[in-house]
Amino acid sequence: MDELLQTAARYIDTGVADGPVNRVSLELSEVGDGVAMVESFSHVVAFDTDDGLALFDVSLDALAAQAVAQLRRWSTEPVHTVVYTHGHVDHVGGAAAVLDDASSRGFSRPVFVGHENVPARFDRYELTHGYNAVINARQFGRSGLGGDDDRPLFPRSFVRPGVTYRDRLQLRVGDLEVVLHHGRGETDDHTWAWIPERRAICAGDFLIWVFPNAGNPQKVQRYPLEWARALREMAALRPELLLPAHGLPIAGADRIARVLDEVASVLEHLVRDTLALMNEGATLDRILQTVRVPAELLERPYLQPTYDEPEFVVRNIWRLYGGWYDGNPSRLKPPPDVAVAGEVVALAGGVGVVVRRALELCEAGDLRLAAHLVEQAVLAAPDDLEAHRARSRIYTARRAEELSLMARGVFGWAARESADVVTATTSDAPTG
Q1: Is 37 within the bounds of a domain?
Q2: Which of 34, 94, 132, 349 is the most buried (most CB within 10 A)?
Q3: What is the pLDDT of residue 296?
């Protein structure tokens, strides 16, 4: 058994991961007869067929050339078909590198296949290019909209699929039968593929070896119940090989069934408990304080909340079934944040009082309330350096306590934002 498959088996069977579950090594592993995976962000999965290679996803633009080079050490056959599991840029951004490789070798242009919603996603990306660059910078800790060579962090152009489908599409690439299935989960344009002759499933982001990315607070709607349904459809096929787009490949029907069942069960649990409270008329605040995932499940190597987290998924379930009104009538048509902050600070007796209380709460470990108060202070007095120093300190502490990359990204951004205000102001002050 391949080393990646052995590692996954050990992690799942023991319940302990003593090494990384997601790697971007840009190394190729042969995980089956004529089946290869390049560990990237996202992975590139390749099947060798009589008509050439069938690829699932093409990674990020910045990593794709290296991923293609790895593939070429494994096979010099032309790429016949590329399947986009969905339209996120880490899955489609490297298409140009695949096209460049085909052109340089005198091969025909590969056929690109994706769900019919993929082109609509690309249209939306063009409309929201600046916003996506900002949130990716915040989420992944980048400093701004441009890299060292002044390229945007979010692409403006995409290779669109020439073949699209709605619910199900059966392809044949040489001797390989590929059955594409649409399922809504992390996206509305998601594809998972069943390759019956290899008893293999290419799962895309339906499995990512962390808690499901079903609640991302800065991205569009996710679909946790339909996500779980897709996982159960996969499990019903009893695959022997599961090839995710992030994380380790998994071998063994029973092992795969266990993983798919537990990930599906977590999502179903969150939907069930959230909807039960919504149907009772509970507010979003009450639901957030009530709904929990069993702690033992969050300890699984493939369910740890290091990217997304259950609290964010609950908010997304509310948004999906209940809209944006959270049940607090004062927030239906609220005053500007700065107006509320001004009143709070004035009633408290000034910015200094609010800042001191926020720091006291920070020291006592109540970081949620500390952050709320320090935001009021900075909104009411945006030029107050002590308020910004406190804000940077509190959000630095918040970031250190969080597990999920999403929370750490937002809190780290806020800490740097206030630290930059302090640095810029003090460096501009006259000296002498």
Answers
A1: yes
A2: 94
A3: 95
Contact 57, 245 (CB under 8 A): yes
Sign of the Cα torsion 329, 331, 332, 335 reads positive
In a domain, 29, yes or no: yes
pLDDT tens across 251-306, in order?
Answer: 999 999 999 999 999 999 999 999 999 999 999 999 999 999 999 999 999 999 99
**Domain check: are 367 and 248 in the same one?**
no
358 in any annotated domain: yes
DSSP code string of 19-38: S-SS-----EEEEETTEEEE
With respect to residue 300, please indicate whether it lies within any of the assigned structural domains. no
Domain boundary among 267, 297, 325: 267
Torsion of CA 245, 251, 254, 260, to 10 degrees: 0
- Domain count for the chain: 2
- Nearest-angstrom CA–CA distance, 244 and 204: 5
Place of tokens 């999502």: 267
Residues 203, 220: Cα–Cα separation, whole Å: 21
Q: Which domain holds residue 346?
A: 335-426
> Which pair of structure tokens corresponds to residue 392?
């940077």
pLDDT digit string, tens, across residues 88-116: 999 999 999 999 999 999 999 999 999 99
Give exposure, 28-47, as e/b (b: 16+ Cβ within 10 Å).
bbebbeebbbbbbbbbbbbb
| CA dist., res. 420 & res. 430, Å (int) | 18
Reading the block at residue 420, the tokens are 């930059």
